[in-house]
Amino acid sequence: MGPHSDSFQPLGQHGNKRGGAVTLQLDRAEVLALYGFLALGSHYGAAMSGENSPLFFDEIRTHTAAISSNAAGTLIEKISAVVVEVLNQRSNEAEMNEQPDLPPHLPPPNGGHYRNLAGKLRLVARECRFPNARQELLDLAARYERRADHFDGYSQ
After folding, report:
1. Contacts of 50 (CB under 8 A, 6+ apart)
2. Angle formed by the axes of helices 57-67 and 70-91, to 10°?
């Protein structure tokens, strides 16, 4: 545990009145662990989309060591406590249950709307040079087609 671990209090216990802003106190090792998580996420995303990773093997090893440290555990505990508190606060607010208002010029989604989006996704997929990303777009287009069929079946 880092030197700031004892002073950390979840959001609800220190009376955050800054309009939902959240502050985390992280020690140096926790910041390095956070950076490790972000860097390895970028590496994984690149690998999954067929791109070259921006990291060298030694960097991957360094980041893996950082996220395997005790500091990574305290980092996760701190972030988890704040997320739970924020979600609890939001679930008590009416905004969690409200649907965002669509601009007045947009009709509510229907089968045709989803088919139109599926067609646009297929056009983007044709232009995509990364095979994994292309397949993800085509999979999403297929899901939108199924959703369109569901809407059409539901409205008949």
Report:
1. 130, 131, 132, 133
2. 70
134-138-139 Cα angle (round to 5): 115
5, burial (CB in 10 Å: exposed 0-12, middle 13-18, buried 19+): middle
pLDDT digits (tens, 9 = 90+) for 100-144: 555 666 666 678 888 888 898 898 888 888 888 888 889 899 988
CA distance 104 to 107: 8
145 vs 156: CA distance, rounded Å:
17
Q: What is the 3-state secondary structure (H, E, C) of the chain?
A: CCCCHHHCCCHHHCCCCCCCCCCCCCCHHHHHHHHHHHHHHHHHHHHHCCCCCCCCHHHHHHHHHHHCCHHHHHHHHHHHHHHHHHHHHHHCCHHHCCCCCCCCCCCCCCHHHHHHHHHHHHHHHHHCCCHHHHHHHHHHHHHHHHHHHHHHHHHC
Q: What's the pLDDT tens digit per position in 34-49?
A: 888 888 888 887 777 7
